[in-house]
Amino acid sequence: xxxERDPVLIxxxxxxxxxxxxxxxxxxxxxxGADWLHVDVMDGHFVPNVSIGxxxxxxxxxxxxxxxxxxxxxxEPGRYLEPFAKAGADGCTVHVEIGGTRELISxxxxxxxxxxxxxxxxxxxxxxxPFLGEIDLLLLMTVFPGFGGQSFMGEVMPKVTxxxxxxxQHGFALDLEVDGGIDxxxxxxxxxxGANVLVAGSAIFSKPQPLRAAHDLxxxxxxxxx
Length: 226
Fold this sequence. Notes:
Blueprint: E1 9-12, H1 22-29, E2 36-42, H2 54-60, E3 67-73, H3 81-87, E4 91-95, H4 101-110, E5 114-119, E6 137-141, H5 157-170, E7 175-179, H6 187-193, E8 197-200, H7 202-205, H8 210-223
Parallel strand pairs: 1-8, 2-3, 3-4, 4-5, 5-6, 6-7, 7-8
Helix pairs in contact: 2-3, 5-6, 6-8
């Protein structure tokens, strides 16, 4: 088993972009600032907010060749997996808290989607551990989902480390992603704990120069691997 770590990937969250000029934001940030594009999908039920859906993904797809990382914060994601796949999503991530995890994994596989599984800050690692060999991405939330701009919850880092240790112990080929409060200060903390994909919204799009902000975030994250 190889213990070589993947490079750090930056996934700007479009939730924090200017939604009135979303195409321009996508074109701008992928000029070197984004490895993936993170699409936060909220249903107003699983989380207390509503955001974008498959039609927006379909509208953006012609303007970007980046990996579309769709995080489905939804009570019934199974109803929308096929629409997201048809819209151009590369991968979808569902929450372990809603149940029916193996059926959702199977559905995503059948649609040709890369399979992601997410856990909220207060969900123990043991809830996702049985599925590590069946998924492509594990997303550990470092805030409670629903709104951007929240503060990073450092108490989640032991769970990130626990996940990284299990991934390496079993030789699983999956990405370990964190989302919530990621900035130049917290990025190296998350990477040191074991994350290799960082979702960042306000730390990039709220800055006067988002491309520079994304570059600085990448430099800060990589410092934890040196």
